Amino acid sequence: MGEQSKLAYARKAVWEHLNGQEKQEVMNIGEDYKGFLARAKTERELAVLIKEFAEKRGFVPLDACSEPVKPGDKIYRVVRGKSVLMAVAGEQPLSEGANVIGAHVDSPRLDLKVHPLCEDEGLALLKTHYYGGIKKYHWLALPLALHGVIYRRDGSGVGVNIGEDVRDPVFTISDLLPHLAKDQMEKKLTEAFPGESLRALCGSLPVEDKALKNRVKENILRLLHDKYGIEEEDLVSAELELVPAIPPRDVGFDESMVGAYGQDDRACAYAQLRGLAGVTRPLRTAVAIFADKEEIGSVGNTGMQSSMFADFMAELLEKTAGRFNELALRRSLNASRGLSADVSAALDPGFAETAEKDNTARLGCGVVLTKYTGSRGKSGCNDAHAEFLSRVIGRFNERKVIWQTGELGKVDQGGGGTIAYMMAAHGMDVVDCGVGLLGMHSPFEVSHKADLFMMIRGCEAFWSD
Prior knowledge:
Elements: H1 20-39, H2 43-56, E1 60-61, E2 74-79, E3 83-88, E4 98-104, E5 109-120, E6 123-131, E7 144-151, E8 157-162, H3 182-185, H4 189-192, E9 199-203, H5 215-228, E10 239-244, E11 249-251, E12 257-260, H6 263-277, E13 285-291, H7 308-321, H8 326-334, E14 337-340, E15 344-345, E16 367-370, E17 374-375, H9 386-398, E18 403-405, E19 415-416, H10 420-424, E20 429-434, E21 436-437, E22 445-448, H11 449-463
Parallel strand pairs: 1-2, 4-13, 4-14, 14-20, 15-21, 16-18
Antiparallel strand pairs: 2-3, 3-13, 5-6, 5-10, 6-9, 7-8, 7-10, 11-12, 12-22, 16-20, 17-19
Helix pairs in contact: 1-11, 6-11, 7-8
C-alpha cells in the first residue's frame, strides 16, 4: 500500500490534528452543548434560550434602537416567540452586504391534535399528528415528555413541561407484543404504523361519579383544571408537543460523541450562537438566523419563506444608514454571502449501501460542506457556485477549520433540502455547511464533539471574512 499522493484530496480526522488544549476544549464544549440541548427541546424553548444568551452578551432588541446603529453594536429580534435573528454591525456599510448564517430551530416531533384527549377501553389517550419526517415506529415504546403552551379563556398563557424531571410522569405510545405481531410484521413499514395509531397513554383512573360518561377522561380534565386552570376548550388553541423524555448523553467508552433528540438542527444553532459570541467588530455585518418550520417546508410567518429576514435587514439598514429605500435593501441582500447551517448524513457502517462512499461525510472529520442538496436530479436544491464554494474553502483553510464534503446518500436513494435556496432567493451566494449526524430524524441522533468544535470555528471564520 503506497503513500497518499500530495496532489490528492485526503479527508482529515479532527482529533488527530488538535493539540492538548484544543482536545480539552472539545470536551468542555460537549458538556455545555448537552446542557443546551436539555433546555431547548422545542422551538419556543430555544427562542427563549437564545434571547437569554443574547441579552447577557449585550445584544439589544432592534425595535428598541432609537440611535443610529454603529459598528460593533449588537442587535436581535424574536419573531413570535419561535424564530430569532441576531446581528453584529460591521465596519463596512450594510449596503455592501452582510455575512449571514442561517440554522433552523424546529425538529421532528409529535404535535397534539386540536381535540387531543379521548378515552378508549378505560384508558385516557392523547391523539397526535406527527410533525416533519419521522419513522413512526421510532416513537413507540418510548418515554415521551409534553412541552408547550396553553392559553386560557381569559387570555393568560401557561407553559407546560412534563416528563423531563426524573420525578415527573412520562407518556408513551405502546407497541404490539411480538407474540401477536404476525400480521404487523408482514406489512411494509409505511403501512404497519398508521399515523392515527400514534396515541399516547396519559391516564387510567376514573372519577368516582359512575353516572358520568368517560370517567377516565373526566379525571384527566379535572387534573388539568386543578394544575393549570384550563378547560377542554382551551386545548383547541394550545400548542403542545410530545418529544423524547431522554436526556442528552455521552456516547461511547471514550465519550467522544453526543446522543440526543433534536440535534437536527440544534447542533448548528448552538455552533452559530457560540461563534457569534466571539464576534465583536466585524468588517461586514454578521447576521445569524434561527428559523422555525424548516422541517415542514419553512412555511408560515416564522419560517424562512416569510418576510422576517428581509424585514430585519430592512430595519437594520435604516438604522445603520439613517435612511431606507428598496433598491438599497436589494443591493445589500444581493451583495451578502451565506451559509445554510444544517446537519448532514454521516456514513453509517450499518447502512453503507445507501451512500456513495467517496461523496459521503464521516463522523469526526470536520464540518460538512454540501455543494448541493435536493433529491435525484438535484430537485429543490441551491447548488452553490464554484467561485463561492472555493472562497469558503479557502477561508476555512486559512483559519484551520477542518472540513469535508458530503451529500445525502446515493443519487437515486432519496435526498433532502435546507433553507439554502430560500436564502439564495434574495440574491446572495449560499452553500450548505453543517455537522454530520448518525440517526438523523430519530429520537436519539448522534454527533461528534470534534465536528461541533470545528463548526463553531467555521462560523467564526465565515463572519470574520
